[in-house]
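Quick one - inputs below.
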Amino acid sequence: MSSRESVSADLSTRLDDDALTAAAEGVVATAEARATYLNDLTSAVSALSHPARGVETFVAGLVDDLVDLAQVAVRTHQGWLVAGQVHGHRMVDVHTYEVGRNQGRVMKSLLQQRQTETWLLPPDTPQRAEVLGHLFGTTELLHEVESLHAATLLIVPMVARGRCFGLVVMARRAPLGFDDGYIAFLEQVVGRIAVSLDACCVVSDNRHVASTLRRSLLPRALPSSSRLDLASYSRVAQEDITVGGDFIDLHGSGDDQTLLIGDAVGKGVAAAIAAKRIRSAVRTGSMVDRDPAFVMRLTNQVIVSEDDDVVESLATAVCARLQREDDALRVTLVNAGHPLPIVLRTDGTVQTVGGHGPALGIFDDADYESQTVVLGPGDLLLLYTDGVTEARGERDLFGEVRLRDVLTGLAGAPASALVEAVAMSISQFASDSEDRDDTAIVAVRLLP
Amino acid sequence: MTTAEALPTGRVAEALDDYWDAVSANDAERALQVVGAALDDGARLSAVLDDVVAACQRRVGGLWLDGEWSVAREHAATAVSEYVVRALLARVGGEAGHEPAEPGERPSPALLVACAEREWHALPALVVCTLLTEAGHRVRFLGGDVSTRTLQGALLDVPTQAVLISASLASSLLFVRRHVETASHSGIPTVVGGHGFDPAGRRARALGATAQASGGADVAGVVAGLPARVRPVEPLTGPGPSEAALLAPRTTAVARGAMSRLAERPDAPEGHLADVLADQLPVVVGCVVSGLLVDEPDVVRETGGWLGRVLDSRGGGPELVDLALAAVRDELHDFPTAVTLLDAATA
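Output:
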């Protein structure tokens, strides 16, 4: 097997011991072979993935090609991510690897030293078990490593951007060891791995921040006892950062609730933070008085007072109070510059509801008037942001007429059917999926 | 739900009848009660999903094909079954979405289930999610119409064991291929499945998928046999894939051009028939893209047969399919390989 093949070969296949040794010898035999290996490794490590997956991939790669034992440990905000494998045994993967307290202390001090170390293992004595325990804790690796009868362990720190954030522990079966040339080569290999894992960790941390924000902008699942059938859809324009300026919220008690949909100007994280602020103001106001006109007046004042830059604080929203009345749902709506909500009756009638109040964040003395509509069993209220009607096709925008066409014929269907039918129609209509605005849709229906 | 006894045939038939009544009345709650009662009586989850929910869905699809049901009615009925399967998924402890683990929580490896981009048929994928969850897997459902970026994001958020890609339409193969590329470039194996694929697995192999599942029943076995890691798929080269890449972004334009050609004819389709044809032509062009990608005229031949059934039940004569395919062919003058493929399919 040539070195090139051995790098890119399906990493799940196991070489037998002789082949492994031959592969390792082949890899390090010449300077040219080593350079080729490092080149191939660089292209193999360039893909980003979840850090846990990355750790496991590199353990498998090292054990397949270069050494008989490999353990990769990365210290993250969430704690240690560690996986290890002895050739011929199953991998102890990140999910099952438990780092012991003492082991964690030893690994942390090795991180601080940030130097390659060669540990000579004492022969079969209690000390040997203790030394191995420092690196492998109480995992199965502790016993499996003994099958190698290794005399030395090589510990190489992972350093990226000037920070040591992880360790790679390696061993070879007796009588193989680590000469200076092989150590220098493995340090280069670990250097490449470190750059890749560092990038995975950075991206993962950043996505975690964005995801946390996104989660806080979506409504929680409704309690099933509320007799309301609610469905929502949201798609963000900048999918790689997972947040946008559209927001949906639902709060209150079982028979008196506030449903909010809105659209803060802009895209991405800045818009999401503005959206979060509006949502909080609406929640706070609703605790004082659930009347939507009062809530929107107050929210507008909060937004205007908070920001000097009008453009950054501009937002549209519909605030709807949902009150259960025997076999009906009384909906009191206020519209602040937002596309008009639509009511779809069980008989197929489609009507828009709500007035035309000013958008939030413009006038500090803006006043809002509410309108009331009563939904019977099976009737449905649809709220949406302008990402729906302004979805761009090849020749024109999606528009209200197409939206009504979609709704016609879906009278009495579950809220999820309406939401999905609308989302699907926009997706099919939009000519370029990479050029889409934030989109949110929410439908609420009184169960018959 | 743990009992292994299947329901007696008569009981399943009865459940199917009741379920059908609920679905055709858009009554999601009643539909859920019907399957809930069957499960409480000891029916296996897989039997309920297959013999009741999927059987009902086949009937819904058939009614639309034969022109007896409108698209809206089909949507509404499908949504009822989706509602039911989502409830069953929750019942076995599953969840939709791909939110990453909370800080401090060690992430366990997951199976990601996704529809190809522009594929909205989420029901088969939801059934797969439910069966895999019941079998003890941690499953994340990314939904219908999953973009490359959404999949990339999910792979960063969750340590992923495998990506399962559902495609109900043969016109989706290019989008399936993009998911295969995204996953394999992170070393993650892929399983494809759905009516968009041939039973022999030829298309799956051509797309570079690691494996194909023929249905919900065998997907757990297929997952168990997957390698832990795969190598990145090789680029698809040759005149077919090159033309597929050029033609795909022009799908809507080619379909519209073909429609205009048909409209100029004295016997041009009108009214509802014309609307249906205009809706389906992009799917036909999508199938040409797929056929180019996997070098298989059968993809186009199948879509021709299926278009014939759709049009026939709506008053289009048998010659309308030929006219429609000829109009598409005329629009493909810059795509010689596509024309050859179309000719092979209609020969």
